[in-house]
Design a protein that fits this description.
Number of helices of chain A: 14
Number of strands of chain B: 0
Helix content of chain A: over 70%
Shape of chain A: globular
Number of strands of chain A: 0
CATH superfamily of chain A: MetI-like
Largest sheet of chain A: none
Distance between the termini of chain A: 32 Å
Largest interface: A-B, 107 and 101 residues
CATH class of the largest domain in chain B: Mainly Alpha
Radius of gyration of chain B: 24 Å
CATH class of chain A: Mainly Alpha
CATH topology of the largest domain in chain B: MetI-like fold
Number of helices of chain B: 14
Oligomer: heterodimer
Structural class of chain B: mainly alpha
CATH architecture of chain A: Orthogonal Bundle
Distance between the termini of chain B: 46 Å
Strand content of chain A: under 5%
Radius of gyration of chain A: 26 Å
Shape of chain B: globular
Number of domains of chain B: 2
CATH superfamily of the largest domain in chain B: MetI-like
Helix content of chain B: over 70%
Largest sheet of chain B: none
Chain lengths: ~300, ~280
C-alpha cells in the first residue's frame, strides 16, 4: 500500500468515506454470491412455476404446453391430498410440542435443578446427530415384538404392535422422532433469552407472593416472545423441509399414511420421473412457504429492522 | 404454612423427576446404539448386564461398505462448502453493510428469499440444472446450491454493521483499499461469528441427506449419510449390532467434537440464532 500519500491527502480532502463508495465495488463484491443464488435459488423457483404448465419431456417427445392440466391432475390426485393433510397434521403436532418441550427444558436447565450439565448435554445431543443415523436407531425402538417400545410395554402386559406398519400410529411415531430431534436445538435459544432476564424480577415477584406459574405466565413468557417467534419460524420451516426420517423409516407408507409434501415431490420426481408433476407439487410447497414467509414478515417486522 | 412448603417441595421433586425422565428418553437412542454396537448380535435386543463386550461389530461394519471413502467424501464436501461460504458470504455481507449502490435493498430482499425457499425444496429443478451442467454425481454438485448462503450473508452483515465506523476510517486513512480494510478490520473482529457459523454449517452439511441422495449415485461421491442409508437398508437386513456400529461411526466425529467443545458448540448455536 502507498504509505504516506493518502494521509496527507486526507488532511485537506473531505473524510474518505465517499472515496470507495463506488457502486461498482459493491456490485463486484456481491457478484459471486449473486450468480450462485440466481442459478440455484431464483432460477429454479421460476423454472418450477414454468415447468408446472408443461408436460414431462419424454425420450421422443419434448415438453409441450398443457396449461393447467397438471394442476387439474393434482386436484384429482388422492395421494396429493393425503400428503397435504398429513403434512398439516404433522406440522400441527410437531411445532407446538417441540416449542413447549424446548421451553420446559430451558427453564429446567436455567434453574437450580440437580444435575444441570447432564440434563443439558442429554437434551442437546440429538441436535448434533445426523437425522439419518438416529432414524435407524428409532427404527429399532419401533420394531414389532422385540423393539424397545414393545419390550417396555410388554412389562405392563400390553401386546406387541407394528407401530410403523399401522396407518394409525405410523405418523405419530415420526412426529415423536421429529420432536425429539429439534426440541434440544430450540432449547438453546430459550436458554440464551432466559439468561437475559433479570433475576430481580423473580425476587420481586417472590416478595409479592406470586406463584411460579403466575410469574411464568405474566413475566417470563411475555419476555420470551421474540424468541418464541424466532423458534416458531424455524420449526415451521423444518416441518416442511426435513423428510430424512421418512425416507429411512417408512418410505411414506403404509398406504401413504406418512407421505409429506416434500417426500411426495421426491417420489414423483425421482422414482416416477414425472418432473412436470413434481414441479406442480413444488409450486404448492413454494406457495405454502411464501405464505408463511409473509406471515413471518408481518409478525417479525417490528423486531428485525432491515437497515 | 409448613404444609404448603411441603407440598411445594413435593411439586419440585416431581418436576425434577420429570426433567430427568425426559433427559433419559432424550439420551436413550444414543445409549441403545452404544449398547448394541459393543455387544454381540445376540444381545442387541436382549439387555442383560452379563452380555460380553466386543468391538467386532465396528470391524464388520467398516469392512462391509467403503466407509473410508464415504468419510473422505463428506470431509471434502463440508470443507468445500464452508470455504466457499466463508469467502462468498464475507464479500456479499461487506457489500451490503458498507457500500451504497443502486438496487442494494432489492438485492438484499432477493438474498433473504433463500431463507424461506431453501435449496432443499428445489430438488427437481436443481437436479435438472446439474445434469445440464454435466456434473451430476460429483461432489461440487452436492455443494453448489448451498454455497451462497443467505443465512451467512445476513449473519455477517449484521456483524459488520456493528463494527465502529472509526476503525474503518482509520484504516482507510492509513491508505488501505476496500479489500484490505475488509481483511484487516472486519474479518478479525467477526471471528466469533465465523466460528459460530462454521460449526453450524459443518454440522448441517455433515448431516444433510436428501439432496446428496438425489444427486449422487456412486461410491466416489456419496457422503456418509447416503452411504449409511444404503448400507443400512440393503446390505444388512436387520442386524442391529452392525447398523448401530455404523451409525455410531458416522456420527462419531461430530459427537466427539461436541463432547469436547460442548460450551463452544452451545454458544455458537446461540450466537448464530440471535440475529
Amino acid at each position: 500500500m502507498h504509505g504516506l500519500e493518502p494521509k496527507t491527502a486526507a488532511a485537506v480532502a473531505p473524510p474518505p468515506r465517499l472515496r470507495f463508495a463506488a457502486p461498482i465495488h459493491g456490485w463486484l463484491l456481491l457478484l459471486p454470491a449473486a450468480v450462485l443464488l440466481a442459478t440455484f435459488t431464483h432460477y429454479p423457483a421460476v423454472a418450477t412455476i414454468v415447468d408446472s404448465f408443461y408436460s414431462t419431456p419424454k425420450a421422443r417427445r419434448a415438453a409441450i404446453f398443457v396449461g393447467a392440466d397438471n394442476y387439474q391432475a393434482m386436484l384429482g390426485d388422492p395421494v396429493f391430498w393425503r400428503a397435504l393433510s398429513n403434512n398439516i397434521v404433522y406440522a400441527g403436532c410437531v411445532i407446538p410440542l417441540t416449542i413447549a418441550l424446548a421451553l420446559a427444558m430451558a427453564l429446567w436447565v436455567n434453574g437450580k435443578i440437580a444435575g444441570r450439565p447432564l440434563l443439558r448435554l442429554s437434551f442437546f445431543t440429538p441436535t448434533v446427530l445426523p437425522m439419518i443415523a438416529v432414524a435407524n436407531i428409532w427404527l429399532f425402538f419401533y420394531a414389532p415384538g422385540y423393539g424397545l417400545l414393545d419390550q417396555l410395554l410388554g412389562l405392563f402386559g400390553i401386546p406387541s404392535h407394528n407401530w410403523l406398519g399401522d396407518q394409525h400410529t405410523a405418523l405419530i411415531c415420526l412426529i415423536a422422532v421429529a420432536v425429539w430431534k429439534d426440541a434440544g436445538f430450540f432449547m438453546i435459544f430459550y436458554l440464551a433469552a432466559l439468561q437475559q432476564v433479570s433475576p430481580q424480577l423473580a425476587e420481586a415477584a417472590a416478595i409479592e407472593g406470586a406463584s411460579r406459574w403466575y410469574f411464568f405466565r405474566r413475566v417470563t413468557f411475555p419476555l420470551l416472545m421474540p424468541t418464541t417467534l424466532f423458534v416458531l419460524v424455524n420449526a415451521v420451516i423444518n416441518a416442511f423441509r426435513l423428510i430424512d426420517h421418512i425416507v429411512v423409516m417408512t418410505q411414506g407408507g403404509p398406504d401413504n399414511a406418512t407421505a409429506l409434501i416434500l417426500f411426495y415431490i421426491y417420489e414423483v420426481g425421482f422414482k416416477f420421473w414425472d418432473t412436470a408433476y413434481a414441479a406442480t407439487l413444488t409450486v404448492v410447497l413454494l406457495i405454502l412457504l411464501a405464505l408463511l414467509a409473509l406471515g413471518q414478515f408481518l409478525i417479525l417486522d417490528r423486531r428485525i429492522h432491515y437497515q | 404454612m409448613s404444609a404448603l412448603q411441603a407440598s411445594g417441595r413435593g411439586a419440585a421433586a416431581l418436576e425434577t423427576a420429570g426433567a430427568w425422565l425426559l433427559a433419559l428418553i432424550w439420551i436413550l437412542p444414543l445409549a441403545y446404539a452404544l449398547w448394541a454396537a459393543i455387544h454381540p448380535s445376540a444381545y442387541s435386543a436382549h439387555f442383560v448386564p452379563s452380555a460380553p463386550l466386543t468391538l467386532e461389530n465396528f470391524a464388520r461394519a467398516w469392512n462391509a461398505a467403503p466407509f473410508a471413502r464415504y468419510f473422505l467424501n463428506t470431509f471434502l464436501l463440508v470443507t468445500m462448502i464452508l470455504a466457499a461460504q466463508l469467502v462468498l458470504c464475507t464479500l456479499a455481507a461487506y457489500a451490503f453493510a458498507r457500500f451504497s449502490f443502486r438496487g442494494r435493498d432489492l438485492a438484499f430482499v432477493l438474498v433473504l428469499l433463500q431463507l424461506m425457499i431453501m435449496p432443499d425444496v428445489l430438488i427437481v429443478e436443481n437436479y435438472r440444472t446439474m445434469s445440464a451442467l454435466g456434473i451430476v454425481d460429483t461432489i461440487p454438485a452436492i455443494g453448489l446450491p448451498y454455497m451462497a448462503s443467505a443465512f451467512g450473508i445476513f449473519l455477517l452483515r449484521q456483524t459488520f454493521k456493528s463494527v465502529p465506523r472509526e476503525l474503518d476510517e482509520a484504516a482507510r486513512v492509513e491508505g488501505a483499499g476496500p479489500l484490505a480494510v475488509l481483511l484487516k478490520v472486519y474479518v478479525p473482529l467477526a471471528k466469533p461469528v465465523y466460528i459460530a457459523y462454521g460449526l453450524v454449517s459443518v454440522s448441517y452439511h455433515w448431516n444433510n441427506f436428501l439432496w446428496p441422495l438425489i444427486v449422487t449415485n456412486s461410491v466416489n461421491t456419496r457422503p456418509l449419510t447416503v452411504g449409511l442409508q444404503i448400507f443400512a437398508s440393503t446390505d444388512q437386513g436387520i442386524d442391529w449390532s452392525v447398523i448401530t456400529a455404523a451409525t455410531l461411526m458416522t456420527s462419531a466425529p461430530l459427537l466427539v467434537a461436541f463432547l469436547l467443545f460442548q460450551r463452544q458448540f452451545v454458544q455458537s448455536f446461540m450466537r448464530a440464532g440471535i440475529r
